[in-house]
Automatic annotation (TrEMBL):
Residues 23-213 form the SusD-like N-terminal domain. This is Starch-binding associating with outer membrane. It comes from Pedobacter soli. Residues 273-550 form the RagB/SusD domain. It is found in: Cell outer membrane. GO terms for cellular component: cell outer membrane. Keywords: Cell outer membrane, Membrane, Signal. Its main location: membrane. Gene3D superfamilies: 1.25.40.390. InterPro entries: SusD-like_N, SusD_RagB_dom, TPR-like_helical_dom_sf. It comes from the Bacteria.
Amino acid sequence: MKKIYIATSILLATVLVSCKKDFLERPPLNQVSEATFWKNANDVYLAVNGVYSQLPGDDMVYDDAAADNAHAQYPWESSATAVSSGNVNSTLDAGWGFTAIGRANYFLDNADKVTAIDKALLERYKAEVRFIRANAYFWLICKFGDVPLQIKTVVLGEENIPRTPKAQVLKFVVDELDAIAKILPQSYGGGKPNEKGRITKGAALALKARAYLYDGQWQQAADAASQVMTLGYSLFKVTDEDALNAKDDYSTWVDFANADDEKKFRLGLRSYEALFHQVNEGNSEVILDRQRIPQQDANFLNTLLPSADLGGWGSIAPTQELVNSYPSYKTGDLITPPTPAQRAAWYKAKDPAFKNEYRNRDPRFYASILFDGNPWNAIEDDYTFKWTEGAGNTALTGYSVRKMVDPKIYRDQIDNHANNILIRYAEVLLTYAEAKNELTGPDGSVYDALDQIRTRAGMPVIDRTKYATQATLRELIRNERRVELAIEGQRYMDIRRWKIAPQVMKSIFSISDAVKPIQVRTWTDKLYLMPIPQSQIDLSRGVLKQNSGY
């Protein structure tokens, strides 16, 4: 079956390329005459595919590094280093941009000029583009609060548009998603123009659930998630291991009760890590992904995440606090880690006790975090991770990211072109569990949603007695969300909407040093929102007003 790939012809690029100067990023209409485009169904097809190129991609990992899950050591790669340190002012561009919105508006303003096209298909194309615009506005209000709401192409003289209240923009977003969910199909059969990977009804409803969750509208979030849960998605699972994976010896890390226990653990680990690999693109868990063109449109996670021993840059490194969040494989409860000083002393003395905190942990820990001694034969024969302190292109915390690194791509020595998963079914289950618990407290449906996620990972189900209150289950849900969605870009908003950022945005240390931080982090409440770049305020001649504190 064909998939939709993010590609544009030279003609399409000249039609839809955005202007860098204008703060609403109007497409420069003087580059291609409209009289020579917008003529037939293929023009519309090319144009809508060009708008797809504005979906987020592998840059999502930096949002976890702007929060407490990871450390971004190279400030030139993203704004995450500055944001996480609290060193934020109006010279920083933390994601202010209207390229996707400008392209979508231009498409929607012109697509109806084409009459030689099936009307139902045209409405579906427009719904796909409306989703991309709604998604762009959603992330803008997450980062900046009030933003200019513009749903028509901006023309000269109309650039200076004031900010619209966040609540009004959010209503626009969810109303759009509700409307287009009635137009979009649940799935696509394949072949032009029904390629796999196009935006579906499930994607619209899942983004709507996320938007309501972030805003604390629990009933609406639960309802939208419930709708997605009826559409046939399921958590991705494998039923066996290949020969390379089978070589990994976890008996040194996990005290297995018997052979069945070991099999459960190993299949949980493999199911979780393999759902992100290129060979499993479009699996049953994927609701929305950013498509990649084989051999052309690279996914850089195989370069950004690993350390130099695997040809990577160590751009994003897990923090110790993320490592601490992975619960016990035996009980399902959080572990009690050693103090930073004790860990550093053990590490420097090469004391065997150093490795004890990595024993009997959630299988997702071994699938996500490269720690000293973690085996990974799939990527290289007899490979185990060894942190080399001070080496070039090495993560500074003592850990590297394993999750979303594709070992087959590394072995084949080719560029990674795996799709970036933007919304998956596990998130929907977590959304439902959180929203429902906030509404009514624990009930069977909440436990069931969480148990699906834990069972897929090879973990024990939730102890109904231990987590019987709304408060205790809330803390478990929040930690489960952190573990399940680690390095997927959700943590940035989670710590803000839960109002825990002042507590969790602490300076971070390496495993070898409990005294000198590798990054000093400070928090002030202005950081709940990012600043509008001063250059954009100047360009608007003062029509745009700055967020408080900047």
